[in-house]
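Same chain as my last thread, 282 residues:
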Amino acid sequence: MPIIDAQVHAYERNHPGRPWHAALTGPPEVTGDQMVAAMDAVGVDGAILVSAFTMYRYDASYALEVRKRHPGRFALVKPVDPADPSVAEVIAEWKRTPGAVGIRMLLVRGGYTEDPADPGLNRVLVEAARLSLPVNLHIAGRLDQGLELIRRNPDTQIVIDHLGLVQPHAPPVPAEPWADLPKVLMLAKQKHVAIKISGACTLSREPFPYRDIWDPVCSVIDAFGIDRCMWGTDWTRAVKFLNYAQGIDAFRVTDRISRNDKAKLMGDTLSRIYGWSPAAKA
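reply #2:
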């Protein structure tokens, strides 16, 4: 079965030509070539390359360079700024960009208003719906606002980031990492919402293969249905908890879901929602 990671990041070292806004948890650099090598080493066929908001904010130029170098391995998601008066034009231009399959908003980390009726936030979702462009929505820490924003935009394909939960960048794991799960499960009632089961291993209190994640993860799968769930590692943010192979093998070797469901979770659902698959290997 093709394996596709729903979220990875690539970035070059900080330099004056493309300076970082801030530092992301991870190595000093994870170039596109290095990310492909990591994927090849563990049998990952492709990935959604999400332009790193922490470093580059709304500039996706490095992600575009990576995709140009590895067009068969990556599709692209770019953060957009709902406060930008020209955000509709930005989204329309992105839609025309080779390899672009989605856009992203991060409610807390973007510093956006907490008002779900905000015209800018809704403008992004309306334009994305018009262009049939999925929106990655990072609503951890603002689930109530996120739910209302989603309800207001039933025609937009939403992809919830990272199980909708606040996830750590470094140990220790929070005392109650799954505390907001009941609110996340409410999102499943909105049929235009899919969810990334990404970064889940960073919520584990056990060593590999992180068996304690599976009861809550299975509750997400049961609520949304496997056809609206997609696996991802959120590499490199998870680097202080596990290595890349562990993030894949925890899902690849588990007996908690069937082989059929693994195929959907680890690639098929993503391909259908984004309309993209990696190039077949020669």
